[in-house]
Amino acid sequence: MTDFAIFWEWLSFAVRWTHVITAVAWIGSSFYFIALDLGLRKTPSLPPLAHGEEWQVHGGGFYHIQKYLVAPDFLPEHLTWFKWEAYFTWLSGFMLLVVVYYFGADLFLIDRHVLDVPNWAAILISLGSIIFGWLVYDTLCKSPIGKSTGGLMVVLFAILVAMAWAYTQVFTGRAAMLHMGAFTATIMAANVAGIIIPNQKVVVADLKAGRVPDPKYGKIAKQRSLHNNYLTLPVIFFMLSSHYPLAFATQWNWLIAALIFLEGVVIRHFFNSRHGRKGNPTWTWAVAIVIFIAIAWLSSGPKLPTGAETVAAPSSQAFMESPHFQAVSDTVLGRCSMCHAAEPAWEGINEAPKNVILDNPIAIANHAEQIVMQAGFSHAMPPGNVTDITDEERALIVAWFREGSK
Questions:
Q1: Residues 276 and 338 in one domain
Q2: Which residue range(s) make up the domain with 330?
Q3: Residues 288 and 368 in one domain
Q4: Is 277 helix (H, G, I), strand (E, B) or coil?
Q5: What's the Cα-to-Cα distance from 257 to each of 74, 247, 253, 254, 271, rounded to whole Å?
Q6: Do 154 and 257 sit in the same domain of this protein?
Q7: Whose CB among 11, 19, 145, 223 lies 3.0–4.6 Å from 92's, allowing a Cys bridge?
Q8: ω into residue 382 within 30 of 0, thus cis?
Q9: Which tens digits make up the pLDDT trace of 200-249?
Q10: Which of 6, 210, 182, 196 is nearest to 82 (CA)?
Q11: Among residues 90, 82, 32, which one has the least CA distance to residue 56?
């Protein structure tokens, strides 16, 4: 069981690393092509059917790029499709959701003080909400509302705010923020897989068959791509938010999530305007700063009631029955709880790191694996060993975990 715990920790790291790599590739290519598309120029020297061109310099060389809204007179045999970045970002993100939140539902997904449901029910709610998000969004895009890009964005924002609030009524604050990221990222990835790439394939098939492609396919794909462009920055925030309790563990976490969408739109507007040579709207940074200050102010309000853990998870019973439990509990309470408490006593620490609270024996048993990973198998905690935990105490934590895991 101990070897499995170590394996699972490394599996989580591997999946997270994969997710970051693929996300960087997807976001990077997305940002590049948005900037490229907005920066295209119409020049007299453009070949027939070309929409615009741009000259770029990078890596000691020059690039001459031309864009065709449909296609040139001939279609090259080799086309580079930008789709796998999106697919693998979503797949690795979903895998991370499974590894961390579904298998760790008792700790990370469910807060019994918010909604006391069995693990399987919480997982079904999670899956259902993600699927629901895409179905509602896709239906809106195909409805009369979808003909107005601005109107559609307003309706979508209202849905995102409602979902942010709804998630906080079901999951832990940490999981609520993460699910806002998953909810939004699913819409983005499904746009690529279900709309953008299929529409491009229709155009390519028509060209190869000698038919004139219908321009509606390009128009629809461009609208979905624009949505993805504005949703990217909020998704990044939600993926990082699990490291910052002030973002997810306060009373107004759902409102913070709503404001993050507005901030993402404002920042993207600045870059889109510059890349499109439509001016330099520096006012957007003032607005972004004001929004961020408002978020920081909201986070200083009342914290979410954590409540003392009064029920041990079924998997924690063995840890509490161990003859080493009392000694380990005393060590954690003496070396860790000054920071990992509802109201930390350590100077400069205002929130329990990652909202992990270890100020009572039941909480210690419930967090056994995290404790042994951070203070037994590794010396990550306490930071800099500021509370002078001894090697003997670390060894006892390992022995306690091995015994409880049998």
A1: no
A2: 314-405
A3: no
A4: coil
A5: 47, 8, 6, 5, 22
A6: yes
A7: 19
A8: yes
A9: 888 888 877 777 778 788 888 888 988 998 999 999 999 999 888 888 88
A10: 196
A11: 32
